[in-house]
Amino acid sequence: MKLSIEVGETEKHFVEFSWNQFIGKTKIKVNRDILVKSGWQITSPNQPAEKEKKTTEEKWVVWGKEIVLVEEWSVNIGEKEKHKVKFKKTRPKWFAGFRPHTYEIFVDDKFIREQTGF
């Protein structure tokens, strides 16, 4: 999935977000410079759940394992005109590698856009 947004009134910034659904790699670029880069993220389904841990909107407990359903990444941008840009990804519970995920973009904690896809 690739998303992009232009942020700022007088100090414009082009923010790009990409996430590879099958291997979990994330990249956030601001004006073509990489600010966030993460590698493989396959630990979530292998994380044992604590005893008495219950399913929430952000974590799913199944068969004694805790699976992260919601992930967030954020970057602070700007020199004179500062903004916080946050990307939020929500995965489906079952067969997440083969189903579309939902992505939300927030600027300064204000919801901007939602997109669903791979």
Taken together, the total number of domains comes to 1
Share of helical residues: under 10%
Strand content: over 45%
Distance between the termini: 5 Å
Total strand segments: 10
Biggest pleated-sheet summary: 4 strands, antiparallel
Biggest sheet: strands side by side, in what order? 1-2-3-4
- Protein structure class: mainly beta
Radius of gyration, in angstroms, nearest whole number: 16 Å
Mean pLDDT across all amino acids: 89
The number of helical segments is: 0
Oligomer: single chain
CATH topology: Lipocalin
Low-confidence stretches: none
Name of the CATH class:
Mainly Beta
Q: Rough shape?
A: elongated
Explain this structure to me?
- The protein is an all-beta fold and 118 residues long.
- The protein is 0% helix and 53% strand.
- Strands 1-2-3-4 form a 4-stranded antiparallel beta sheet, with no helix packed on it. It has a 4-stranded antiparallel beta sheet with strand order 7-8-9-10, with no helix packed on it. The chain has a two-stranded antiparallel sheet with strand order 5-6.
